[in-house]
Predict the 3D structure of the following.
Amino acid sequence: MSEYVIETNHLTKQYGAQKSVAELNIHVQRGRIYGLLGRNGAGKTTTMKMLLGLTQPTSGEVSIWGKPLPGNEKTLLPRIGSLIESPGFYPNLTGTENLRIFAALRGLKNQNAIQSALELVGLPYRDKKLFSQYSLGMKQRLAIALAVMHDPELLILDEPINGLDPIGIAEVRSFIRALCDERGKTILISSHILSEVALLADDIGIIDHGVLLEEEGFADLEAKSNKYVRFTVSDTNQAAEILRGVFHENQFTTQDSHTLRLDSSKISVAKIVAAFVQHGLEVSEAATVEESLEDYFKRVTGGEGIA
Amino acid sequence: MLKLISCELAKLKRKKFIPFVILSAFLFPPPLAVIMLTPRMMDRYDTKAELFDAFYQFVIGYAVELLLPCVIGVIAAMLFFMERDSDTFKNLRTIPVTSTQMIFAKIIVLFLFGLFFSLSSAVVTIFCGSLIAEVGGLGYKLWMAVEMGIFITAGTLPLVVLVVFFSKTYIFSILLCVFYSVLSLTVEGCYEVLPKFLCWMMPLPLLNIWCAGDMVRHGVRESVGRLEYLVPTTTQTVLILGVMSVLSIWLIDRLYKKRGGD
């Protein structure tokens, strides 16, 4: 059995001369949440469509549970739940009627599956409201209900929190986490909202202009991210002398006459502050600053942040 | 496939056009019954049974033939545009339901509608006929309605190819259907001047002349006059329509896959 639930090998999608996804190699591990992070148009949705066979790759391979997707759709796809782009349902039917159609086509035997899925996302069962009358948030919830209705082992969710209000976002986040932690589901989630991915994902893939720039466990990424100590003192020149003279430390920069940034130091902050004070410096702030996911994203993509 | 068909029918729930489609099956028989009661028409037939046969042939041979292609065309537009308009292709294909399965289900639904429409028209015609004339040969007449429902639907599949090909609005599809019906009626008015090949290649004129010939064979009608040479056998009719249907379904499948990004 393959180590990975999803594995792609040099997956490429080209539209004319433009490569939407280029030589992508992603690895989604069993029972973990993989966050695919990228700006709008980075190639996240195209990648997910290729993973589901909704669009054919120009080159490269998709393998799910160790099996190539082409030719195995009938055995692989029923084990996957998905939400791709905007929610797509029949506008003349209610949410329950819509789910009933897809449940029938999936051959769901469990009569409660629809009701449970709707309850999970906080939508009423057998409501008379038509899908065309739903708000954007309700549509998104219904799409999530459709994705989880048949209790799939793998969930592929493209921007699942789009259109949800803050409470809805928190609810969806918590039940996605629960699906992974309590029921062992493997989840691939894409988002351009860094904070959401940071709160959810165990592993992160950063995609930009169709190229996967980084793929790491979130813990490794945190370890790799830059940390520094920022001192706000009465005189940075004197502080610099103390660092050089007392601690033999040169990895710092003075940002202005009062702010000094110490990039990597094994010396404890308390000792440095004590030395500053001992030498008559006024220390108004000493803060350990950790690079955020957004800072990391900016650094990796070489551009601006996305959220 | 049964599941797919029932789902296709479920998708049409609350579609405002559907009740009108069903009602249109009742559109022609009552006014035609009134026309049959005019002295000029009454004088043409010796017995009440003959009057009913003529009335039945009018409805099934002309009215159903005129309306049913429009009905099939519009329902086809609804069914074939539904996934595109509501963006549900992705949901179906990740089940997975293939485009070919979807197409077969949709085409079977079209045949069901054709059958329903034709039989409803026949039942209303028989009811109206019982009020103005003497109803006879019910078994054959109902069977004829079944055949016409299936044949006209099959003969409308080339039109469905165009509807899927152009993939435009419903209005455009309705215009195409009306054009198809009017063109067919025009050909039917020019039987004697058009080559036999052309008359047989147009599904509705082919069915019109087959229907008349079949009624003659079953003694419902005396003759088809000078058009005798044009009348195809049932086997020939089924064969021509069968080839057209297979070709149409193949083309619809290709076009639909292209639209769905298969």
User: Anything to note?
Assistant: Residues 227-290 of chain A form one domain.
